[in-house]
Design brief:
With 361 residues, the chain is α/β, with parallel strands linked by helices. It has 2 domains: 5-16 and 87-133 and 208-358, HAD superfamily/HAD-like (Rossmann fold); 19-81 and 134-204, AF1437-like domain fold (Orthogonal Bundle), CATH 1.10.3870. It has 19 helices and 7 strands.
Length: 361
């Protein structure tokens, strides 16, 4: 039997954090709004306009000059991350379990400081993670740049939130107000900041989102010596889209865990659960019986189906303890239910991770 491989995103399927958002909120005045506007701009560039050279998750690059402006250091990022890791219920048990039954990896857009802190909490080998590398201390910022970036940060935080029209494909599909905001953000990020000394970050930091996540899975299967159909990938956001597409094309298994509309659009199975025991169950069946068995289980999701698929007794006992009457939601995603499932998953996501983080792309 060919070995199976478990690969998961970090923030969402394992933790409730959005570390970059939380860092910005903590260190930058009106950081919540600043980050949210930039995150929505990220969605516009990556998913709507499909800007060449831009990928989902590059928000983590765009926000760095503002973190630097307000004195954030490697030590500060590390200390903040260590103090604020917030796991999804059951995550440590799940990550311990999957390591026992499959080669397991985390592929995350998150900064390395956060991944290091998370791995310590869940007992996961840091060397089995892919993440965004950044050494914020090595970048210089002048006094003039600091003043300019503080003014720009205030300007962006005051912008109205961009609204993405359904089926939008070009800039002209947006309202005049949002076209103006997008053009101004283009000016800030692609003309003003790149001319600054701190703008070197944009050339040297490469967030692990979008195609970089797919590249990470390519590297993993090459390292393990298996095919993509041996991969189970769990994700929840726009940064997972290309990875979902790559794994699906290779006939691997793709699971949206409390995903937003981007994740539900691309995955095969939708999970809505406040506890990761469901991930453990799907991984257990995948490791023993393969993808088709997982899809069959998801289609007939019930206590009876769990017994039929001979789910590991400790997991079966745990799910009975947690959910004596009604199991968490697990469904096959189809063309007919995709839109309604996305709405339900987004709503559920917000109950687990909070309204502010839950609505980020």
């Amino acid at each position: 039997m060919t070995s199976k491989v478990f690969v998961t995103d970090c923030e969402g399927p394992i933790s409730k954090n959005d570390n970059a958002y939380e860092l910005t909120c903590h260190f930058v005045p009106d950081g919540a709004k600043l980050f949210s506007v930039i995150s929505k701009y990220d969605d516009v560039l990556a998913d709507v306009l499909k800007r060449e050279g831009y990928k989902a998750g590059d928000t983590l690059k765009l926000i760095l000059p503002f973190l630097k402006t307000y004195g954030v250091t490697n030590r500060g990022m590390k200390a903040f991350s260590e103090k604020n890791v917030l796991l999804v219920a059951g995550a440590r048990d799940t990550m311990q379990f999957v390591q026992r039954i499959m080669a397991s990896f985390i592929v995350s857009t998150s900064y390395e400081h956060y991944l290091y802190a998370l791995c310590k909490v869940i007992g996961f080998p840091f060397e089995n993670t892919y993440h965004t590398r950044v050494d914020i201390d090595k970048y210089e910022i002048t006094e003039t740049e600091t003043k300019t970036l503080k003014r720009i940060a205030k300007e962006i935080a005051a912008m109205p939130m961009i609204e993405i029209p359904k089926n939008a494909r070009t800039l002209k599909d947006f309202s005049f107000r949002d076209q103006r905001a997008i053009k101004r953000l283009d000016e800030v990020f692609w003309r003003i900041i790149p001319k600054m000394s701190v703008g070197r970050m944009f050339c040297e930091v490469n967030p692990v989102g979008g195609k970089e996540k797919a590249n990470a899975v390519r590297e993993i299967v090459a390292k393990i010596g298996c095919d993509v159909d041996c991969v189970m990938y769990v994700g929840d956001s726009i940064t997972d889209v290309e990875c979902f597409q790559f794994v699906r094309k290779g006939d691997g298994l793709t699971v949206s865990f409390n995903g937003n509309e981007y994740a539900v659009r691309e995955a095969e199975v939708a999970v809505m659960s406040e506890n990761t025991v469901v991930t453990s169950i799907l991984a257990d069946v995948f490791a023993r019986l393969g993808k088709e068995a997982v899809l069959e289980l998801a289609e007939k999701w019930s206590f009876t189906a769990l017994k039929k698929h001979k789910v590991t007794p400790t997991l079966l006992n745990r799910v009975h303890e947690l959910y004596p009457n009604i199991l968490p939601r697990v469904e096959i995603i189809t063309a007919d239910n995709k839109e309604s499932l996305a709405k339900e998953s987004i709503a559920f996501r917000k109950t687990v991770r909070g309204e502010a983080i839950g609505r980020l792309g």
